[in-house]
Amino acid sequence: MSDLPITVILPYYQAENTLKRAVGSILKQTFTKFELLLIDNRSTDMGPKIARQMAQADSRIRLLFEEEQGVVFAMNKGLLEARGKFIARMDADDVALPERLEKQHAFLLKNPEIGLVGSNARHVSDLPSKGLQRFVNWVNAFHSAEAIWTNRFVEIPLIQPSVLFRADLHRKYGLYRNGDFPEDYELFLRWLDAGVLFFQLPEVLHEWHDSTSRLTRTDSRYSQDAFYRTKAQYFAKWFKRVEPEKALWIWGAGRRSRQRARLLEQQGLKISGYYDLKNAQSKQVTCLSYQEIPNPGSQFILSMVGNYGAREKITNFLEERNYQAGSDFLLMA
């Protein structure tokens, strides 16, 4: 095992316009004891030439090539080649602020119980859509291991390319998996399910650059349906293990909520009924007003309501009824 502290893994594909900026932000880190793996994933633009030029100027850069197209294969190539005790993720169109590696490395050394640490991020975009900005604002509000764990089925409240984690995690719990699902979300849920603790530093140490070509916008593996299939799989696994005696009720009886709930039934869970704004009895489902929610103890409530601002209202209502997040309810929208 190498005594090298950090390996930074940076896969790239058709990144000639941003690669130099991204690599430069790593080379300018205040923490200097790292190797940087630049993994060409079959680029046909000037990206590989830029990578070669930068590698010739800095011996910390290692150039790799991954024939199999896809970030899963490029990332796994890097993980298997990495020599560092800690692994830092980086995207070819992002910017790591100068103290990112120093502060994250120091945090993991000081907190051996934490397996992975991210940081708050700044969203950079010229696009008119405000969706990703709202997502970044949401992510930046969570820092503790408990908060990240409790919100894991809404989304993982971390910016994936901002993280640093212990290299033994992928050896214990597996590499990225390829399939019709978001590979980073599946990996994080799998590690959390295994008991790995995540944390997020409150400092902004990463710039997350948005564009029309970002995979989260263009690849079907990052669709809402793909996310909910992954959520259902890991929620069902956890619920069967931890809360098998409680009746599962869904908050939200609209068409979309029921569609999402069916994914849970496909994972072998029985849904006892639904809560919504008012009673809506039908032959298909039992639906009661949320005002009829009983005292905590016998039920577990999973919220499928995704309307903007609804998460906070539902959480506040349940906590006022003495429901505890994680043991009595969770959010999944």
TrEMBL record:
It comes from the Bacteria. It comes from Sunxiuqinia elliptica. Keywords: Glycosyltransferase, Transferase. GO terms for molecular function: glycosyltransferase activity. Residues 7-142 form the Glycosyltransferase 2-like domain. The keyword Glycosyltransferase applies. This is Glycosyltransferase involved in cell wall bisynthesis. The keyword Transferase applies. InterPro entries: Glyco_trans_2-like (IPR001173), Glycosyltransf_2 (IPR050834), Nucleotide-diphossugar_trans (IPR029044). Belongs to the glycosyltransferase 2 family.
